[in-house]
Amino acid sequence: MTDAARRVAEFDALIIGAGFSGLYQLYSLRDRLGLSVQVLEAGEGVGGTWYWNRYPGARCDSESHSYCYTFSRELLEEWQWTERYPGDAEIRRYLDHVADRFDLRRDIRFGTRVSSAHYDAATNRWRVTTDKGDQFTAQFLVTAVGCLSTANVPNIPGLEHFAGRWFHTGQWPHEGVDFTGKRVGQIGTGSTGIQAAPVIAETAAHLTVFQRTANYSVPARNAPLTDEFQRWAKEHFDEVRQVMHSTTNGHPFAIDRRCVFDVTPEERAQIYEAAWQKGGLQFRATFHDLLLSKASNDTAADFIRHKIRSIVKDPVTAEKLADIDHPYAAKRPPIDTDYFETFNRANVSLVDVRADPIEAITPLGIRTRAAEYPLDLIVFATGFDAMTGPLLRMDIRGRDGLTLAELWKAGPRNYLGLQVAGFPNLFTITGPGSPSVLCNMPVAIEQHVEWITDCIAHMRSHGLTRVEAETEAMDGWVAEVNAAANATLLPQAHHSWYLGANVPGKPRVFMPYAGGMARYRKICTEVAAKGYQGFAFGS
Hints:
single chain, alpha/beta, FAD/NAD(P)-binding domain, 20 strands
C-alpha cells in the first residue's frame, strides 16, 4: 500500500507509551474529558519499563503499598500486593489488572513503535508515523515513554564476534535465560547489576562481575506482606497518600528533620544501624542534611563502607567494593538482597575495570588490559540513555521544522519538565526538568497526568486550541533546575546517569529537578492558578 493510500487515523490526543504514565493519561483524557485517544505502544503488552525489564532479580525499590495508582479508591481496595518490594512479574500483573478494570486496551495499539512526530502549524495537529508506516494525527501529543526505556549497550570493540550470547537487562528475553553451568560476565554494578548478580550466581558455573564504579547499597529486607500490614495500608491510605504528597521523594515516609551533627557519634551509629536493619530507602531519610553537607554525608558513606568490609570476607575484594568515589545517594541509591554476600561465593569474582580496563570482547570472552576472561554469556547491566534518550530516538519536530534533537544539543531545555517552546500541544510526562527519577515514580506520574489533563480541560472550556511554553519561562526553569541540583551533593557523582555520563558524547547536564516533589507540586499548582503563567495559548 502506498503512503497516499494509507488512511490517516485522526484523534483528539495521541499518547506514546502504555506504562504507568500512558495508562493513566489514557484514562484521564478519555474517561474524564471525553476525548478520542489512541495509545501507541512498542511492546506487545502494557507495562512500559516493566514490560521490557524482566532480568533476574528485577524488583522495584519503592515499597509496594506506595508503588501504585491512588486515583481510584476501589482500585486500592481490590488489589493485594504480596511483597514489601514488588517484583517485575507482580507489577505487570497489577498493570494488566488496571488495563482490564478500566477497559483501556481497546484504545491501545500494541507492537507499534513511533518513528516520527511532526507538528503541522497550518492545521495545528501533530502527524505521527510508526515504524510500519502507519500515520496518525492529533491536536495533542503526550509522550509517556518513561525515563529509563532506551537501553545503553556500550560500544566495546569485538562484540559482534562474540561466540556466546549476550543480553541487556533492559531488553531481557521474555522466555528467560538459563545460566546453569554457564560462565557469565556481568558488566555494570548500578541498581540493576546489584539486583541481578545474586540471582545469576545461584546457578551459573561462574560469574565474573566487571565493576567500573563501586556503589553503595543498603539491604532491602524484602519479605512477604503480612495480613496485618495489608489491612493497615488500606485503612490508613489517606494518611499514606498525604505523606507521599508532602515529602521530597514521594515515598510513604518523611525525611527526618534532625541533622547529622545534632546527635552524638554513638547516637548516630545507632540510628544508622537501626535503618540498616530495617532496610530500604529509608536509610537515606535518617538525617535531613545527608545530601546537603559533604561532612554529614561522609558519616553515612563511612558506615556503609564499614558494612561492606564486614560482609565481604576477602579483603582485596572488599576494598574494591568499598572504593566508592561519590557521596552516598548522589547516584541512585540501590537496595539489595545479598549483593555483597554474593562475593563470598566460590563461583563469583570481581574485576575492577577502572584499574584494569576492558579493551575488547573476543570470540571467547572479555579481554582487559591484563587478562582475558572466557565466557559463555555476557550480561550488560549498563543502564539506559536516561530521560532524554526515549524522546530523542524519535524524530520529533516542532514549528518550522525545529527538531527536538537540535534544540537539546547542549542538554534538555523545557518548562517544568512538561513543555518545550516551539512544540505546541506537546506534553512530556516526567520529562527532564521534573522530579521523575528522584521520586517514587507513580506519585510524579499522577501529578503530571492530572496537571496535563487540567490544562487541556482549561483550553477546551476557554475555546483555546494551542499551548506551548514561553522561551523566557523555559530559560528560567533551566536555571532553576541547575540551582536546585547545585544546592545538593548530587552533581558530585561525576559518573552518574543523572548527568548523562554513562552515554559517550551525551551533554553533561543534571537532568532531573532536585528541589523535591512537594515543592515542585506547589510550583505547578501556582503556575496554573495564575492563568498558566509561562505558557502561551492561542485559538
